[in-house]
Amino acid sequence: MKTDADITNDLQRATEVRGDELRALHDRLVGTADAAHLLDVAYRTVDTPVGSLLLAATEEGLVRVAYASEDHERVLESLSARISPRILHDPSRLDAAARELDEYFTGRRTTFDLALDLQLSTGFRSIVLRHLTDVGYGQRASYGTVARLAGRPKAVRAVGSACATNPLPIVLPCHRVVRSDGSLGGYLGGVAAKTTLLELEAAR
Amino acid sequence: MAACAVFLHVIITRRRPGQLNPRTVAGQMPSKPPFEVVVEVHGATVLRVCRAVLGRAEADDAWSETFVSAMRAYPALPDDANVEAWLVTIAHRRAIDVARARARRAVPTDTFDDAPDRHGPVERDDDLVAALAALPDKQRQAVAYHYLAGLPYAEVAEILGGTTDAARRAAADGIAALRRAQRQRGATT
Asked: Is residue B35 over pLDDT 80?
């Protein structure tokens, strides 16, 4: 005589789901959701010399680049709260970003040509971020210089906090901003990552 | 679709009167997991349920429509809602739609090549699947939602309509019929 547990096991076996079947359905969901403008945030990770980077994009453009030290799971939760919980793993929307980052890390690219979504940064911080690209590849600028570029020469500390909360590190090059005494200063991805990026750019 | 989302919103909020999300109480920004996590955690169970209720041939379409509907409605879902029950509720409605469409298709065209997947490669536990397909709708649904999705009978009743006792009875009758079918198979082999 079969027990309830036996029947449950039989049912489980009869409806067994394989990983590849589920992946195919996931891909189909991504396609449908994207076409219906339901995919508010797409993400993927890429492996780089500064560790695994999380890339996330809205329909507007790249909205977040996050270091592993920021905890990718927590970053996605925060995107869910701040932008939308309609988030799916979808590498295809980030193809261009992944390719340009790869070119950057192999020394074949000095500027990024990507659509950006700066909605995670507001007010003076977003003004600072827009001016980070004024500091060219391989160059360094002090926090004070960036404050002047952003039109508020006395707002040196605000530049520091704008860099510390940069939602698009590497692409918006806050790693090129250093202390006026020439020391590196902090970096949201860790000082080792900042050194790696500056050395990479100096070597070219 | 929007009406359906509102309806779901109502039944889910009604089920938990007066309950506050602890994170909201603590004054932090309310948040819910990225939808990717919902697919990861519940995708397989919902596919099992779709297969049990509709058969393999139509399960993929029902699963896809379920998750697209769910993704549409997800931002409005209360943070403390029972996500699995919510998904099974949506799957239940999509399965009804798919079954209706099948019925419409089946009437006028007798040349229609019926469900090629039934003769496909996956033949294991075929008898159980056949026995499941032969159950009355309510019994098959009650068995799937309770035994595969693991929903308590109160939740099953809310999805099917009717009382908790009726849901329990439907599942018990369904299981009894599956047992009989399996015994018969055992006797003939």
From this structure: yes
**Do residues B130 and B94 both lie within one domain?**
no
DSSP 8-state secondary structure symbol assigned to residue B80: T
Query: Is the CB of residue A131 less than 8 Å from the CB of residue A146?
Result: yes
A14, A15, A29 member nearest B39 (Cβ): A29
Would you state the pLDDT for residue A1? 62
- For the domain that residue A63 is a member of, what is the CATH number? 3.30.160
Backbone φ, ψ for residue A140 (5° rounding): -130, 150
Q: Is A97 in the same domain as A155? A: no
> Cα separation of A155 and B181, whole Å?
78
Q: Are A95 and A138 within one domain?
A: no
pTM of the predicted model as reported, rounded to 2 decimal places: 0.84
Query: Does residue A51 sit within a domain?
Result: yes
- All residues of chain A having their beta carbon less than 8 Å from the beta carbon of residue B178 are 7, 10
Q: Which of B115, B141, B174 is the last residue of a domain?
A: B115
* pLDDT at residue number B2: 40
Residue span of the structural domain in which B107 resides: 2-6+34-115
CB contact under 8 A, B48 and A15: yes
Q: How many CB pairs under 8 A join A and B?
A: 110
Confidence grade of residue B129 (pLDDT, cut at 50, 70, 90): confident
Q: Which of A59, A116, A52, A55 is nearest to A89 (CA)?
A: A55
Q: Which pLDDT band holds residue A2 (cuts at 50, 70, 90)?
A: low
